[in-house]
From TrEMBL:
GO terms, molecular function: nuclear import signal receptor activity; sequence-specific double-stranded DNA binding
Gene Ontology cellular-component annotations: cytosol; nucleus
Pfam families associated with the record: Hikeshi-like_C (PF21057), Hikeshi-like_N (PF05603)
Organism: Musa acuminata subsp. malaccensis
Protein name stated in the entry: (wild Malaysian banana) hypothetical protein
Family (UniProt): Belongs to the OPI10 family.
Single GO BP term: heat acclimation
Highest taxon listed in the record's lineage: Eukaryota
Matching PANTHER family: HIKESHI FAMILY MEMBER, PROTEIN HIKESHI
Domain Hikeshi-like C-terminal: 138-190
Domain Hikeshi-like N-terminal: 17-124
Amino acid sequence: MFGVVFPERSYPMDASAFTQIDPLHWVLDMASFVGDAYRDVKEVCVFLLPAAAASFPPGKALAVYVQPPGHPFLFCGAVHPARPSALLALPWPDLAEDAVAAFGVLQVAAASAKIGVSVEDFASLPPVADAGTERRAERLALRVGENLFNFMQSFCGVDGSRLVVPMDILDRWFKKFQERAKKDPSYLKNFSL
């Protein structure tokens, strides 16, 4: 019915790599795939197989979820015949964050991370631009801001109760940021979440 690829981490896998819970639910235990390094798996490409896309029930979608250890499932996105494949970010939450969406009937806390796939009503799914995307963008902005702050701190002076920085500090930081990104493509990946 469907297949998945974890970019730069796996070959294409079909639904047989997952444990089928019932006719509409599948689960992949990440411990068997990457052990405790599940947070390093940042995205999954999910796709409907051609035969399944042609016979997919109208109004249904294949929803994808993640479940960090000890948390309920979180919605990542969905595919359906009009959108037969998608590259979905896996929003592994910080341990302090609460889960926002449950996956089907499986709401027990997991001992290891899992990926869940479920056939559901398309209309009942959250929008694709979900809270996970917003959280990642917020964290990215915070990391870039932290980088700027640390750079500025190294040039600060004190004038009474004020910190003083050179007028061209933003230009200098931005040039350094751009040069480093050009020299080392993996530098920007350090800011990814």
